[in-house]
Amino acid sequence: MAIQRRSFIATIGSGLAVGAAGCLGSDEETAGDAPDIAGETLTLTTTTSTYDTGLLDDLHIPFQDRYGVTIDTIPEGTGAALQIGRRGDADVVMVHARSLEDEFMEDGHGVNRRDLMFNDFVIVGPADDPAGTADADGVIGALESIAETDSTFVSRGDNSGTHTKELELWEETDVGEPSGEWYLDAGQGMSSVLSMTNQQGDYTLTDRGTYLSMRADLDLEIHVQGPVEGGTDHLANPYGIVAVNPAVHDNVNYDLAMAYIGFITSLEGQSIIEGYTVDDEQLFYPEALSEEPNFEQYVPAGWRGSGDNGGDGS
Q1: 98 and 232 in contact (C-beta within 8 Å)?
Q2: For residue 61, how many other CB atoms are within 10 A of its CB?
Q3: By C-alpha distance, which of 154, 147, 149 is closest to 185?
Q4: Under CATH, what is the fold of the domain 121-235?
Q5: pTM (2 d.p.)
Q6: Which Pfam families did the record assign (predicted)?
Q7: What are the domain boundaries of the chain?
Q8: If 224 and its partner were Cys, which of 18, 123, 188, 266 is the partner (CB 3.0–4.6 Å)?
Q9: Helix or strand run (H / E) with residue 59
């Protein structure tokens, strides 16, 4: 994943004007066709990292003020967030495990997926680094060193995006499936796992954003970097946003969900994401807008039609 800081602020005014003209058309079309969403409530279920870092406050206040709506946020691990969407108990989901997002769409529960932003994962631990992870051969070597030295590793253990990534990494090690007294299955969100690691563990895998937002209260340091600071692409952490399918769940507020997706993937929303910092550290990097075509953000990764014209190929 190419890491670059994008600047949207200079073009917000003209971009929003063009977007509004293109979407709304004439006054008569606006009055007749635009959905009236004022006074309604959007239910968003999202990974704990977007909630715990405070990013959503900066995104939601201008959206709510502009449309006169309320956002009810349910922070969960990615797996639980998508399960809420599968039940039709949310209008939109914001998560960070592409394989789970793909299953959600392939099963018909999600539509109009968009890439939203990214940061990365890092391995954190005490300053003395008892397993020598900083000197190991990449993230896979670091995990193998943790296991070989019986250093305590605290796992999310909650089917979240972070937990999904962690298990994918373990599968590439000689360990395979981690177990034993050194491996603690917390079943908690990221902020709780960081606090637990700080108190009784040695290491954990965390998204950079949550770690940076809590760093002042932790005695943990980054020992294995992701791509944001020049580390391995193995630790890239992309976020996506998906509307819950109103054809499957007729109770969802699809108009409001699409207005929300439109806002946070717009020039304005993306500039808010780019400008959000904690202690002068950027936590997330916008990814919804790109000069390069990226149609796979709308469909499961790797998907291809069965024929050139979308037919059966016969």
Answers
A1: no
A2: 12
A3: 154
A4: D-Maltodextrin-Binding Protein; domain 2 (3.40.190)
A5: 0.80
A6: PBP_like_2
A7: 9-119+238-297, 121-235
A8: 123
A9: helix 55-67
